[in-house]
Amino acid sequence: MIDINLFRKENRRNLSIIKNSIKKRFENETIIDLIIEADENWRKSQFEMEQLISTQKYLSLLISSKKKNKEDFQDQIQEINLLIPKKIEAEKKAKELKEKLDNLLRKVGNIVDEDVPFGKYSDSNKIIKIWGEIPKIQENQKNFSQLLLQIDNGFNQEKANIISGKSGYFLKGFPFLLSQALINFSLQFLMKKGYSLIQTPCFIKKKLIEKISGNEDYENSLYHISGNFQDDLQEKFLINSPEQPLIVYHQKEKLIPENLPLKYAGFSTCFPKKEKEILQVEQFEQIEQFLIVSPYSNLSEKFQQEIISNLEEFYQLLKIPYQVVLVCSGQLDQASSKRYDLECWFPSFGQYKKLGYCSNYKDFYSRKLSIKFGKSKRKKKQYVHMLNGTLVAIQNCVCCIIENYATEKGIVVPEVLRSFIGEVSFIPFLK
User: Fold this and answer.
1) Is 248 labelled as part of a ligand binding site?
2) What is the DSSP letter of 318?
3) Does this model's pTM top 0.85?
4) How far is the C-alpha of 211 from the C-alpha of 105, rounded, in Å?
5) Which of 142, 159, 173, 253 pairs with 101 at a CA distance of 20 to 30 A?
6) Where is the Aminoacyl-transfer RNA synthetases class-II family profile domain positioned along the sequence (predicted)?
């Protein structure tokens, strides 16, 4: 949620920034006037409510004083009795108007950074860097599914579909070991970079996913869980990224500046409801880089570059060709002010596919969740900045490794993964 103060009279010079950002996102500018009107109505109602509360406090003090002095206070009692229903109604009205204002604010995306390329579709994305040598596409190039089947039926969706329904899978033998090796390598990689390892819950309460989903349709992108969970009757959803529980991890906290940045290597099994572009499954493991930093000195921009640098180093160690892309304005998710995608080469597609990314959310989430910077009692609240980057979606990366390391007789194991699978350097085809 962006700062409501940007829409107010004393800051109207910022309206041009908001208008420009909304245009870049190809959204409707009329939302600005609706927010200004809703804010003015709420502030007026809030003032009226506070006046009634102040009057009630004054009358209560006056009654207390008259009691001590043994004076008559029946007139004040009558005034309070008349005032209380008005106060209750004013509180109700102010609450309704605040909810209306917040609902409108949730429809506005984060302010788009100036250096984000303008464009509605992915063809406007800007390629920042290309690394690695792309191998020649073979005449009978096999995709990862075909290659996995040659490794002792290492990937089986047919049996999984009978048991779990569409988009399930069995991963066995060397492909399974490869996925576990990739998990261990990824976590060690981030631990050496100073990240705290953290395994997140696989589900999240509805009231929290509502807060962080904004204008996005989470009910159609997440699996809903119903039932009584140890007397917890709240609705829940399965997560599609460790990022979701990490975003709310410090809700309603005041974070001490000396303890920042906080760097988390988040790990979880994920359950995306919508099918993915690479491996068409709805269950996989994912590892995130999640940072909480100071809102000052453009530190979040500096740390975004650090996340991208980590991503590049990770895939360079795996020796997988990739390109880094600066995502255009029309392709940004609502919370991101700027996003980089890291796309790796898939020989069977003959193109790059996204395996990692890094988004700068600034204070978009921390404002919603009241995660404050410092314990200052100053009137103006400061909120921490948040960043997130997917280091690796394990099963997708396994597919990419298998395609890039395939030979006529089997799969070469990347050097950095061999120590995690008993120094095995080659996985032969059995078919």
Assistant:
1) no
2) T
3) yes
4) 12
5) 253
6) 188-414
Cβ(368)–Cβ(384) under 8 Å? no
Q: Which residue from 106, 52, 112 is spatially nearest to 79, judged by alpha carbons?
A: 52
The more confidently predicted of residues 346 and 1 is 346
Both structure tokens of 382: 């400061």
CA distances from 377 to 3, 6, 254, 297 (A): 19, 22, 11, 21
* 388 annotated binding-site participant: yes
In this structure, are strands 224-225 and 426-428 parallel, antiparallel, or unpaired? unpaired
Q: What are the backbone angles phi and psi of residue 353, rounded to the nearest 5°?
A: -130, 145
User: Cβ of 132: how many Cβ atoms within 10 Å?
Assistant: 16
From residue 338, give the alpha-carbon distance in Å to each of 5, 244, 392.
22, 18, 19
3-state secondary structure of 87: helix
Quick one: pLDDT at residue 168?
80
Judged by DSSP in three states, 35 sits in: helix
> Cα(336)–Cα(339) distance, rounded to whole angstroms?
6
| 313's tokens | 């180093």
To the question of whether residue 199 is assigned a binding role by annotation, the answer is: no
Instruction: Assess whether pLDDT exceeds 60 at residue 379.
Output: no
Under 8 Å between Cβ of 387 and 300 = yes
Query: Any binding-site annotation on 28?
Result: no
Q: What is the layout of strands, in order, in the sheet containing 236-238?
A: 203-205, 236-238, 224-225
Judged by phi (left if over 0) then psi (alpha if -120 to 50, else beta), residue 315 lies in: alpha
Chain-centre distance for alpha carbon 399? 24
